Amino acid sequence: MTAIRFTAMPTIDAEHLWKGGCDAYDRLPDTMVSDGPGHPCRHCLENIDEGEELLVFAYRPFPALQPYAETGPIFLHKRPCKRYAAEEILPPVLMTSPDFILRGYNEDNRIVYGTGAVTVIGEIATYGERLLARPDVAYVHVRSARNNCFQCRIDKIKAPALTETGAFA
What we know:
Blueprint: E1 4-7, H1 11-18, E2 30-33, E3 53-59, E4 72-77, E5 99-105, E6 117-120, H2 124-132, E7 139-144, E8 150-156
């Protein structure tokens, strides 16, 4: 099997919004106050607590516009938070729903047809590993099974490279 890691929204994307930047639609994020569970922050991958301010904005987790570059609404703590670091562990935001959609993408950031599946929480890591073991899948998105909102990415853990002397780089 392939070793995997759960990858949160890049800090550079979150910092852009925290500093007043615009979203994928070139609009400023909306500010809301969380009324409790159901507002998962895509940077720390934890739920935003009731009473906390959050940003709602259009996010496109792809490097460029193209037909498969889905854009949708997501949440972010309004105040800076630490990026999710326990990458080998199922993130807390994935414990809030009974299931999620997992979908594989290739090196060209295109959907690999036939990979999308509604997956129960207990099978997310296994199905993500199975997809990433395929040579045509470069990474996997975890998305809401109800609204298709981007949650996080699943990536392969790359083995350290060996130098000419046999030491790890």
